[in-house]
Amino acid sequence: MTKTIGNPLSWLVGGTGAVLDHAASVGDTFGKAEAEAMPVPRRITVDDLRLALRKGAEDLGAFRSDVVFVCLLYPIIGAVLAAFALRGDAVQLIFPVLSGFALVGPVAAVGLYEMSRRRERGEPVNWLAYLDVLQSPKFGGVVLLALLHALIFVIWVMVADLIATLTIGADTPRGLMAFAQLVLGTGAGWAMIVIGCAVGFLFAALVLAMSIVSFPLLLDRNVGVVVAVVTSVKVALLNPGPVAVWGMIVAGSLALGAIPALLGLVIVLPLLGHATWYVYRAAVA
User: Fold this and answer.
1) Is the pLDDT reported for residue 190 higher than 50?
2) Going along the chain, which residue ranges are E strands?
3) What's the pTM value of the predicted model, to 2 decimals?
4) How many secondary structure helices (H) and strands (E) does the chain include?
């Protein structure tokens, strides 16, 4: 049957109703008994990561007009957040907010996982897969895990602000140039950089272990949030080397994507999102 979008109001009403239905069953989603066997993690290698990136690039090529249209939102959101930080005299939060893409990226890529899942199965795919996820019976689990990632992001920003206060003080100079001079030209500024990067690494490692396969697993299998996260952590513990390499690939790609006014994220995020689906397929039996 041909799928049509309908008018925005009708879609919003229908989508809101679906969200409320899923929210009502969130408790069941979180702790339910699993209908399928417990997912089994398996060993992966760096070659599996290369293959995942190659397949992810193929998906990006197949869906480029769809994913670029949707992923334009991410650099726009990042720019808006940075602008709010500047206008609110919170210049010290610009880097923590932008680096937080690594913490919320797995959430933003849920629609990309679904697109790769459908393409792998030979099903017709377009950007409406993003909207279909909202009406999936598995959406309750996705929401719970997304809220957990959002909470971690908020805690990271608060911790980063505390680190800045304890090192360079509460009164930060106005403007990026003055702030950069303070940070790069003083011992307190370098202390903030070192401590902030060390703590940020811990946050990133936690999110990587929690999310390397959890979101794709929720979309693909009849499992709850706890099982998805536990399986993801097991994958990370079973494959510390490849998972660390994947983390460096993600961090390096996001850093490169953020350099040209965040516009590189339009390519980087969908590439990583599609590739993550294939990392999941290699890492979970």
Assistant:
1) yes
2) none
3) 0.76
4) 15, 0
